[in-house]
């Protein structure tokens, strides 16, 4: 975020620890609160140029020829061995593609894609003048309709352009959620309007909503560690198996066809003082390592620790997961909130 934007946030009650946004003077008391979350850990990348669609069609899992103007989708990019190095939400604004991506992955993603872009008329650039905002809550749809006079249709991943330089889209989850991609020049206008209706909070709140909805993401600690199926990406609409070749596609498609997947992402909970670190190993009752944590946070309602972890499917189905090999901290595995159907996913 720019220095001017940080100063503006401070005037609106934001709290910083060094460069990190850590809170506001008022925070939500429940996950169902009508909230506006500053997604300060995300950046935008633009992909422009006459070959932009052809280039991305050969690099990412999204079916680019099916992504219409002012619509959005999820996607991943893989190494030739099918290991994900980034994941994102992508939209077509009618002139170029915009990708929302974790800020710790932005530079690496641009540099990796540029290695494949040398034979295409395409430009990849970071867009630091945009801020991603999460909007959620029990009454969020009616409030956003009142603020923006409309809300996007969820059925076809529609994107609504708001005045000046901003985009509003509905995003998945157990609770009703939207994302607003907003140019920083427009923040002084929209922020007071939004916070009059919604409680401001940080990205930690949004990440808790991701955890309970089992919507995992790549972080710098997990780059090139997992194939898309291990983070449930085909089930979440992040992989097209009918688009043709892209980097890593052969490995990803073979895994889907063989149906021999042994691990995937689950939500787990337990009582403890502090959330464990990413890549903390988990164990079964025999003391064998069965996976690792990829995301963690504290539930503001139950005060439990909430986790996303990639673990063996057999251990998850038996609810046989412990934080240590000594079996002194059992974890509760929760049922996935969406279906896993590899055969149906192959048709998408």
Structure description:
- This protein has helices at residues 3-11, 52-57, 106-116, 140-148, 187-197, 203-212, 249-258, 313-317, 342-345, and strands spanning 14-17, 20-24, 35-38, 42-48, 72-78, 84-92, 97-102, 123-126, 130-136, 159-162, 166-171, 177-183, 199-202, 263-270, 281-283, 289-298, 305-312, 332-333.
- It has 348 residues and is α+β, with helices and mostly antiparallel strands.
- The protein has two domains: 1-221, 2-Layer Sandwich (Gyrase A, domain 2); 222-345, Elongation Factor Tu (Ef-tu), domain 3.
- Strands 10-11-12-9-3-13 form a six-stranded mixed sheet.
- The longest helix has 11 residues, at 106-116.
- The radius of gyration is 20 Å and the shape is globular.
Question: Regarding CATH, which class of the largest domain?
Answer: Alpha Beta
Name the strands of the widest sheet in spatial order. Answer: 10-11-12-9-3-13
What summary fits the major beta sheet? 6 strands, mixed
Terminal Cα span:
37 Å
Outline type: globular
Number of domains: 2
Radius of gyration: 20 Å
